[in-house]
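#struct-help
A.M.: can someone run this one for me? Single chain, 301 residues.
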Amino acid sequence: MTTTSALPTWSDIPTQTWTWNHFDIAYKVYGDKGPAVLLIHGFGASLGHWRKNLPVLAQTCRVYAIDLLGFGTSAKPAPSAEVSYTFETWGQQVAEFCRAVIGEPAFLVGNSIGCIVAMQAVVDHPEISRGLALINCSLRLLHDRRRATQPWIKRMGAPLLQRVLKVKAIGRAFFQQIARPETVRKILKQAYIRAEAVDDELIDILMTPARDPGAPDVFIAFTGYSQGPLPEDLLAQLAERSVLMLWGTRDPWEPFHLGQKLGEFASVERFVPLEDVGHCPQDEAPELVNPILQAWIVGKL
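D.P.: on it. Structure tokens below:
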């Protein structure tokens, strides 16, 4: 059953604030019964990217969606010795949110880099998780350890671009060029196969945080981050058959055939192809994703 009439709409649910390491972290929660589920967005996105999943999952679960530090309406402090935009930082944020706000182990669901965040949190703090669902996991194709396998233009071009963008004036100017509604819409229509899913609400969800003063510095910091874990590093450390993996078969950013290779790890219980869907299936094709997640959660109880 996928009716949402008994629950408030996305806009009716207030955004709440949790203070973590002196920074304001935004989140929403739907539902008041059942197991806890935590939804973790990808790069440049926010908790609003789960607007089509929260009401459905909340029929039988308490569902939380969080803005990672630096994204959405969460704080965007400048990178410093005290603040680093890394998977270790975000993994710690997620783990402490599970303890302080959710108060019990949760099912963690991520999209894109949100998958890496979820895995990092569980590798470092296994007690917070009842299971992991990864949707089009980031392959981190620009990671330092990936470059040897890339065409020479990417091996040479990516590090050069990263160095150029670290020049603050250049990086901010570049960010301002891409943080425009028409540019964001064009980028999303590359990532989404169903053009009609790229609606005005989605553009607004992504554009509003991009206007915050700290947003350019977060963007520059992450685009220059070519270290940290690869997904296979983390999958190898997770418990056997603890991961559900979903993958849009027409993802132009994280190729499906490479995702299938991740599905061979012992920690992956099930790998589900989502036909003719792009990089963000939870938003592009929620009618495919929501029933899979609902059945997976029930099967774990």
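A.M.: thanks! The chain has one domain: 10-300.
D.P.: also worth noting: Confidence is low (pLDDT under 50) at residues 1-5.
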